[in-house]
Amino acid sequence: MRKFYSIITLVLVLFLAAFTTDKTKGYKVGDVATDFSLKNVDGSMVSLADFSDAKGFIVIFTCNMCPYSVANEDRIIALDTKYKSKGYPVIAINPNDPAVVAGDSFAGMQKRAKQKGFTFPYLFDEEQKVYPAYGATKTPHVYVLNKEAGKLIVSYIGAIDDSSRDENNVKERFVEKAVDALIAGEKPAVTYTRAIGCSIKDKRK
To answer: Taking the model in full, what pTM does it have?
Structure first.
């Protein structure tokens, strides 16, 4: 009898494994990214379609309060300064719920953007619908998009570089290498790295 139950258990495990769907959410490299419309710190609504001359985008999920995000702010500004004129502007998005972290409120975003002199849109994912669509889990978390045949193709996902806290220790600049390759008409050699930062704050979880 015990052997019979063991066989039944094994059959059930195999059956469930065969029909369990992949629960991994968000974009993978090669996927087509859809557009969004989010409020910028200046009060305007911003979509990727607004940038008709863009060849792609450096979409970065970041926030005001995470020390990893703060440590990367100057690097994010530098990315926008370097690549906006080349057709790859930075689009920063705050995915956090201010009910969890008060400092990540829209007013806090406006204050931080002014303090740092952000040169890029800093958008509020107020309904927290965009970050799950991308699959972002950290701040900062980067998605490099490349425009191909009118579609935005995800070409790189991960960290800005290999030093999450101290820019002086950077040895490899992942985002720069990815965008440089796209500008040269090539595929990035590295398309995925692990994002290191604070977990995105969502009171629904």
So the answer is: 0.88
